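Milestone M4 deliverable, item 7.
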Amino acid sequence: MNLTISATNTGFTVEAYGALAAPKQDGFFAVGEEILPGKWRSSGTGIGCYWARLNANQDLIDNHFGMAGCR
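Output delivered:
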């Protein structure tokens, strides 16, 4: 994609398409490279849900254990 910004532009919107916006299975995903930033919700088919945010060194930033269908 090519984008030209002129002096009169005040902003632009990009819509998400393709693999970044597709549903995910269990696993690790790099935000912005393999998964879009934002709010995600599980399908709720399991008994629980776990998510974690890790830094580049795989150190834990934040995490949550919740019930199925968590965000």
